[in-house]
Specification:
Blueprint lengths: L5 E15 L1 H5 L6 E3 L6 E15 L12 E12 L4 E10 L14 E11 L2 E8 L5 E11 L4 H7 L3 E6 L2 E8 L6 E10 L1 H4 L10 E13 L3 E2 L10
Parallel strand pairs: 5-6, 5-9
Antiparallel strand pairs: 1-3, 1-12, 2-4, 3-4, 4-5, 6-7, 7-8, 8-11, 9-10, 10-12, 10-13, 11-12
């Protein structure tokens, strides 16, 4: 990324992943995107975390007043028709109203009351939207560090986000260091974000990881994707 626009840290992040039938997720995607499958399944991730030191790229993290706040996204994994993979956000819960500016490119931000707290060896996340009834509560106990498997990397390491606005698909590039992952045991998991997004409530046990986070996140300029010309008649 030659010119980042924003810098931030994504800290105390838990990845909760469920496998879904691809057709169930495909119905929620725009036509330009297809489900990116792993082992024949579509995967949906519920990922609460702390957004730290959010600032314009040229501003150092030491400047007073830089915001830190809780955020949670519900996402799935997709490919553009040209083969480029990325993330499609089904919803984004945020405690900082300033982030609502990203709705300009279609990011599905929902303002709410969110928290991330520590209690001994447990990390607790909670959130509820200001409008509507979608909410969640998650308590995990991080375990030992793990060497990421191929599936772990596939689920957590995505370098672009797709959104849709004004009839156009937008692409936002992202860069950061590799996620340091650990096992995590779930003490409490209650959420209605999946059903609010149009998915059935998960029934199987999720795949769960915890990460202390990445501190050198760089987000680039969001750009509209120009449709690829249809040359099938040539």
């Amino acid at each position: 990324m030659r010119v980042p626009v924003l810098r931030a840290g994504w800290l105390r992040q838990t990845f909760v992943h469920w496998a879904f039938p691809p057709d169930t997720v495909r119905a929620l995607l725009p036509g330009e995107l297809v489900v990116d499958e792993y082992d024949g399944a579509a995967w949906v991730g519920f990922t609460p975390f702390v957004m730290a030191d959010v600032r314009p790229a040229a501003v150092p993290a030491t400047v007073p007043g830089i915001p830190t706040f809780a955020e949670t996204n519900l996402r799935t994994y997709v490919r553009h028709r040209d083969g480029r993979d990325g993330v499609w956000f089904l919803s984004i819960e945020v405690a900082c109203p300033l982030m609502l500016a990203a709705r300009a490119v279609g990011a599905p931000y929902n303002p709410g009351t969110l928290s991330v707290s520590l209690d001994g060896d447990a990390v607790s996340y909670a959130g509820s939207r200001w409008v509507g009834e979608a909410s969640y509560r998650l308590v995990v106990r991080p375990g030992d560090p793990v060497t990421p498997t191929e599936r772990d990397v596939w689920l957590t390491s995505r370098w672009r986000a797709y959104t849709r606005r004004l009839g156009m698909l937008w692409e936002t590039p992202v860069e950061h260091e590799p996620w340091p992952l650990a096992d995590a045991a779930v003490d409490v998991l209650e959420e209605t974000l999946t059903t609010a997004a149009g998915l059935p409530a998960p029934t199987a046990a999720p795949l769960v990881h915890f990460s202390e986070g990445v501190r050198h996140v760089r987000l680039g300029v969001s750009r509209p994707r120009v449709p690829t010309p249809d040359r099938s008649g040539e």
